Amino acid sequence: LMPDEYLKSEVLHGDQSLVLELGAGTGELSNAIGLILGPAGPVTAVPIDKTSGALQQVTPLLYLDLAEEYAQEVLVDVVKRGKVVHVHLSCPSDTLAQLRKAKRLTSKGRQSPQPRALRDADHLLGFPSRDDGEPEGLVPHEVARLRNDNQVIHFYQSMIKHCEELGIGWTLEASATSWLWYFPWVAEFEAKRDVLRMDCLLYTSDAA
């Protein structure tokens, strides 16, 4: 089945309520839910992401690119059908990191140079590009990464609004040092409700 067909078949014909894990990466949360509740439990978790990256998946992913309008429309439609009880939204980490990390070794086994920052508190959507006339501005591949992550962030904002309107629980995951927490819409949600922040990421210790 295609991802949209699978999701709709679960919604229309499955007996279990659904938890959607968006930006699932390795699928740790969905795997934990499955281990705790079992395959015949009242809830089934669906881990969704474009890829798990360099990390090993712990459970099979449903592959959808959250930056694409098609995927966003499918997920909003599924949420509106009434069987989703919780949506977990894990944010892109690289372009939102205040200090981006080198991710690969060079051919000589040395750490690659640390990537430069792509945004700051005054440029939350990203620094100007060289196409904007900035000599030291962002180059095309940096602009593309920003555009992709910004589309995911905008979708998450929309998804949280749908969850609020429908009475569906949601959680938002990002590094505690992520620029995400500086976005005005995140502050607006925090002002409306009590927010519990806790260290919960498996591979780092600065999560919220």
Features:
disordered C terminus, 13% strand, 5-stranded parallel sheet, 208 residues, single chain, globular, alpha/beta
What does this structure look like?
It contains five helices and five strands. The chain is α/β, with parallel strands linked by helices. The protein has a five-stranded parallel β-sheet with strand order 3-2-1-4-5, with helices on both faces. α1 (3-13) runs parallel beside α3 (69-80) and α3 (69-80) runs parallel beside α4. The radius of gyration is 18 Å and the shape is globular.
Gist?
The protein is an alpha/beta fold and 208 residues long. It is built from five helices and five strands, in the order H-E-H-E-E-H-E-H-E-H.
Average pLDDT reading: 86
Structural class: alpha/beta
Inertia-based shape? globular
How is the main sheet built? 5 strands, parallel
Write the layout of secondary structure elements.
Elements: H1 3-13, E1 17-22, H2 28-37, E2 43-49, E3 62-63, H3 69-80, E4 84-90, H4 140-166, E5 169-173, H5 184-192
Parallel strand pairs: 1-2, 1-4, 2-3, 4-5
